[in-house]
Structure formats: C-alpha cells, structure tokens
Specification:
The chain is α+β, with helices and mostly antiparallel strands. The protein has five helices and four strands, in the order H-H-H-E-H-E-E-H-E. Strands 2-3-1-4 form a four-stranded antiparallel beta sheet, with helices on both faces. The radius of gyration is 17 Å and the shape is globular. Residues 2-15 have low confidence and may be disordered.
C-alpha cells in the first residue's frame, strides 16, 4: 500500500502545487495593502496570467507595465515564476478593455500575451 501511494505521489504530486492554477497565479502577485489602498480610492486591482516565454526580469516588466496608460504608478506586481501580473487602475478614468489592450500592446514586442484572471 505504501509503495502504491509513493508511486502515485511521484506521478501526480506535481498537480497539487503546479503553479498553473488561477489561485496560485493570483496569490503570487496578491498584495493585501495594495488591494486595501486601491479600494479606499475606489480603484480596481486586476490580475492577469502572462502567456509566452518571459525573458525579462520582474523589475523590468514592472517598469514597462507601469508606463502603460491607466496603470497606477507603483501598483504593478509581477511574478516571473508564476507568470502573473497584477495592476491597479481607476475604472472611472480607464475602461478595463482599454487597459488590457494597452498592456498587451506594451508586452507584445516581448512575445507575451495576457489572459484576464480576476478583478477585485
């Protein structure tokens, strides 16, 4: 019985902490303080999965993302390992589709695409 459990864990153990689940991606870039501050200003935090081979550092991606129109400066959270991104924006000034389009335009030359995961 123990051998069967051990062999099963070898084949399926990776599925328990694969890093590809939506919750794992969000958790990798989640920042409670940033979310609390955003809500106090009636801003929205949006979470994206990053698709493509990431060759840049998290800090260079963060700088690139924060130059995008509508992204609140200092709000970007990037996890290269989890391939995830979170940014804060003011929905009264920028619509989510416009924000996503701007981010995708900034990341496209790097061969990266975004997939919307959640907004809070």
């Amino acid at each position: 019985m123990r051998l069967a459990l051990f062999l099963t864990s070898l084949f399926f153990g990776e599925a328990f902490a694969c890093g590809y689940c939506v919750e794992d991606k969000i958790a990798a870039v989640y920042d409670y303080a940033a979310l609390t501050q955003a809500h106090a200003r009636k801003h929205t935090v949006v979470y994206f999965a990053i698709d493509g081979a990431i060759r840049d550092s998290a800090s260079s991606l963060k700088t690139m993302v924060e130059r995008t129109k509508g992204v609140e400066k200092g709000s970007a959270r990037v996890s290269v390992e989890a391939r995830a991104l979170a940014v804060t924006f003011d929905p009264r000034r920028t619509a989510l589709p416009a924000l996503q389009s701007g981010l995708e335009k900034a990341l496209k030359p790097r061969g990266l695409e975004l997939l919307l995961l959640d907004t809070k």
